[in-house]
Design brief:
Length: 216
């Protein structure tokens, strides 16, 4: 608005753009009831929704930004369907709002992994650390409506870049050690979910690597 700087007392606005530059435009405009918003964190804009898209750290950054701008409701355009590979991400997304001033992605991820995997928590921590480090450039820069979003035009090329053979081998090794350390059926069931989702990603990306090798 150009002719006023405060909305009426009963007003809440829906913001479809929630990046810092989108919200900065409204910093000096009074919105008494706060905002509701879309988040595009899990829009499947490269290849498939069955690959991880966000990291716990990227979710923390996003949630802190929305908290600063008095967000009262969030609509997810897409969901973290991979509750094996994206389990810590979904957990941080949900638990952050219990105590937004003090919760952190690191602490919540540790809480999730230790509770979910017991004696297999250490190798699973290594698994998730490697996975999220590998896809951080997507979560922080290339994901939907982020700065690099429009620069993506080849999902296969992106997946081959995000998941080089060395990372796939590292993830498989950590997951294998986790499976060996599992000491009860619930942990084994959770690891089986991670394994199933990981094998889909690994098989898909291996096809891309084989295709690239043949094309060259």
């Amino acid at each position: 608005p150009r002719s006023f700087d405060r909305f009426p007392p009963n007003t809440m606005l829906l913001m479809c753009g929630t990046n810092e530059k989108d919200l900065e435009k409204w910093r000096n405009i009074g919105i008494p009831q706060g905002i509701t918003s879309y988040v595009y964190s899990w829009c499947p804009n490269y290849c498939s929704r069955y690959v991880p898209m966000m990291t716990p750290a990227s979710i923390e950054d996003q949630m802190r930004r929305l908290h600063r701008h008095n967000t009262r409701g969030i609509y997810r355009d897409g969901s973290p369907d991979l509750y094996g590979l994206q389990g810590p991400v979904a957990y941080v997304f949900g638990r952050f709002w219990d105590d937004p001033d003090n919760n952190t992605a690191d602490a919540l991820t540790r809480e999730f992994v230790e509770a979910a995997f017991g004696r297999a928590a250490l190798p699973m921590t290594q698994f998730y650390n490697a996975l999220y480090k590998g896809i951080a450039i997507y979560a922080d820069y290339l994901a939907t409506r982020l700065e690099g979003w429009a620069k993506i035009n080849d999902g296969f090329q992106l997946l081959g870049f995000l998941y080089p053979p060395k990372l796939l081998a590292e993830l498989n090794e950590a997951l294998t050690r986790s499976e060996a350390a599992a000491d009860n059926d619930r942990v084994r069931a959770r690891l089986a979910l991670v394994r199933r989702e990981f094998e889909w990603v690994r098989a898909t990306v291996n096809v891309i690597h084989f295709y690239n090798a043949h094309a060259l």
